[in-house]
Amino acid sequence: MYIILMYDIEVNDEDNPYVLRKVFNICKRYLNHIQKSVFEGKVSEAQYLKLKKELFDILRENKDSCIVFKSRSEKWLEKEFLVKEDIDKTSNFI
What we know:
- By secondary structure, this protein is an alpha+beta fold.
- Helix content is 31%, strand content 24%.
- It contains two helices and four strands, in the order E-H-E-E-H-E.
- It has helices at 16-30, 45-58, and strands spanning 2-8, 32-35, 38-42, 65-71.
- Strands 2-3-1-4 form a four-stranded antiparallel sheet, with helices on one face.
- Helix 1 runs antiparallel to helix 2.
């Protein structure tokens, strides 16, 4: 499956640097970092379940958010850059 994942970490508390760093590193292991807190990539069902579990273990229920858009394949998505296209971060896409 192909997923796009975005997260938002609450910034007004002392745990923020730890949570932010940990969530970023978890996402980076499974997906391509596109910009700030946005990741995308192809994962198997097993990888997706593992990613979700790791994120559930670190994200705080009443403070943080994470949204995942899922698709069967990247070919069903159309990507359009409105201002700046970062070729380095999207070089694996045609």
